[in-house]
Design goal:
The protein is α+β, with helices and mostly antiparallel strands. It is built from five helices and four strands. α2 packs across α3. The protein starts with 8 loop residues before the first helix and ends in a 23-residue tail after the last strand.
Length: about 160
């Protein structure tokens, strides 16, 4: 994986534009960064090859699709250490959006979306509870979300300093 020092200001600007709208035409990116479309396309291709751009996705409205309840589940597993198979088992549950190995009393922080509290209870009982390594869970239900994004804060230097 590339390090931050391998990305110049133009790459940062391109990444910021793509984070804002991944469907933006290449010609518009080129216009904004004041480069030829072919040069921009080549930079994007290299960012993809290096794994800096991991992919492109669509953000869906969870409520419109019947997944309006957001909850975070703290999971304590047997042994309290990193268990790749257990993390994979959590990751394979359809309602699970994120799985993080964390420091502290709990072992994992899991982001889930369900239709309602009944579905959440069933998920915790039938899916999480069925995993043999689960020692305990603590759940926090989100009442309202002020900000939710996957965008990274890309530190840009001055836009005038460009490297070809």
């Amino acid at each position: 994986m590339a390090t931050d020092s391998t990305i110049d200001n133009v790459d940062r600007e391109i990444l910021a534009i793509l984070q804002e709208n991944a469907r933006i035409p290449n010609a518009e990116i080129a216009r904004r960064v004041e480069m030829a479309p072919s040069a921009v396309l080549e930079r994007i291709r290299k960012l993809e090859e290096r794994g800096i751009i991991r992919g492109y996705s669509v953000r869906l409205d969870p409520k419109a699709l019947g997944c309006g309840l957001l909850a975070y589940v703290f999971v304590r597993s047997e042994g309290g250490v990193w268990q790749g198979d257990f993390a994979e088992a959590l990751s394979n549950i359809a309602e699970v959006q994120e799985v993080h190995h964390i420091a502290g009393e709990d072992c994992f922080l899991v982001k889930v979306r369900t239709s309602d509290t009944g579905a959440l209870g069933t998920l915790l009982r039938d899916r999480f509870g069925a995993l043999p390594s689960v020692r305990s869970t603590r759940t926090t239900i989100v009442l309202e979300t002020a900000k939710e994004t996957t965008a990274l804060a890309i530190g840009q230097e001055t836009k005038g300093a460009r490297h070809a």
